Amino acid sequence: MATNSADVVTLPQISFDPAEHRSSQVRQDVYKQSGVDTAEADAGLTHIINRVQGTWPKQGMGRVVLPIGYFANVIELDGIGIAICTDGVGSKTIIATMMNKYDTIGLDCVAMNVNDMICVGAKPVSLVDYIAVDKVDAAMLDAIGAGLCEGAKAAEISISGGETAQLKDIVNGFDLVGMAVGRVDLDKVISGRNVAEGDVVIGVRSSGVHSNGLSLARRAFFEHQKFRVDQYIDELQTTLGEELLRPTDIYVREAMDILQKVNGVKALVNITSDGLLNLTRVEAKVGFEIDRLIEPHPVFELIKRYADVEDSEMFEVFNMGIGFCYVVDPNAVTQTISILESYGRKAQRIGYAVSDPDQHVRIHERQLLGRRKTFRNEGRVIRKAG
């Protein structure tokens, strides 16, 4: 049973009825109107997964260690685990173009990949990038390269190659994607399989929006409010463009230190799209009670207000101030937070794991109950903080 500062009562069996599903679909349609159709993407991904798993060798060289769906995967190569992952920066490139500022977007590309890779316990080693442009601009490419190198230095990796494609008939502006490789001992691969009831969730504060949800953010600020990218916003204490272009934090160094020094680390979770619902990617059949949120950055409240969306959608789309999570044994909490703070991170206990085969995430403060990829307003709190 969980004993970490909470009065726990029995969690009832919960299912979403059709009306709740329709409400969720309405929220998906709001994001879809911003240009992101998550439901269709999930349907297409299911088909891809069914096909690509047929390519997996049953054993030996190239054996795929983890199922698809975690943050990265690991393949076996001569008894060594090689971690691989790929990700891009999405429509954050549009903000860079609007500002004519390209020297940080490469850092985002590195962050999106290495922050996923450390979730399997791997040390990132190298990254290759792919830049697709509608037209070549040498100064822009040089600035992107500078950001990639700054990110590589922060993550302690190399940039070992890449590709630039001129696709004026396909691309409007530019797209930036990376693919990272790393190393992990096969007996040290992490997938959250050992997470158990009572384990503690530690949240690490994000730098801001990071690189997810920019389609909805752009709609809120530039379509609904007609703000300028260089407009100074008092609540943000900076211009809107600078806030939205703020680089994604890179969490590699402290994660490697924690994995080396702390016993009882059960899972590492990158909080990207799907927000805190990413916690349920862990292999164990557990749910999570979030009873002490990190205060979200002011930009999130502005997006909510100007996009006219509910808390439920905000927590589905954005990190809401929590960029990364560790799930650890209760005895490992103090040491883990101490290491994070030594790297300048703001970190705190935000919740705990509970036995739950349906893998719900409950956010007490906002009275939200989440399952799979959606939150709904619960209207009540089953478990109260002590």
Helix coverage percent of residues? 25-40%
Kindly report the average pLDDT value: 90
Biggest sheet, spatial arrangement of strands? 10-12-7-13-11-14-15-16
Beta-strand percentage range: 25-35%
Q: Globular, elongated, flat, extended or rod-shaped: what is the shape? A: globular
Unreliable stretches (pLDDT < 50, length at least 5) are 1-24, 380-386
- For the termini, the CA-CA separation is 14 Å
What is the CATH architecture annotation of the largest domain? Alpha-Beta Complex
Structural class: alpha+beta
The largest pleated sheet is described as: 8 strands, mixed
Which helices and strands appear, and what pairs or packs with what?
Layout: E1 6-7, H1 18-33, H2 38-52, E2 73-77, E3 80-88, H3 92-99, H4 105-117, E4 123-133, H5 138-155, E5 158-166, E6 174-184, E7 200-205, H6 214-224, E8 232-233, E9 238-239, H7 240-244, H8 252-261, E10 265-270, E11 286-290, H9 298-307, H10 311-317, E12 322-328, H11 333-342, E13 347-355, E14 360-363, E15 368-371, E16 374-377, E17 384-385
Parallel strand pairs: 4-5, 11-14
Antiparallel strand pairs: 1-17, 2-3, 3-6, 4-6, 7-12, 7-13, 8-9, 10-12, 11-13, 14-15, 15-16
Helix pairs in contact: 4-5, 6-9
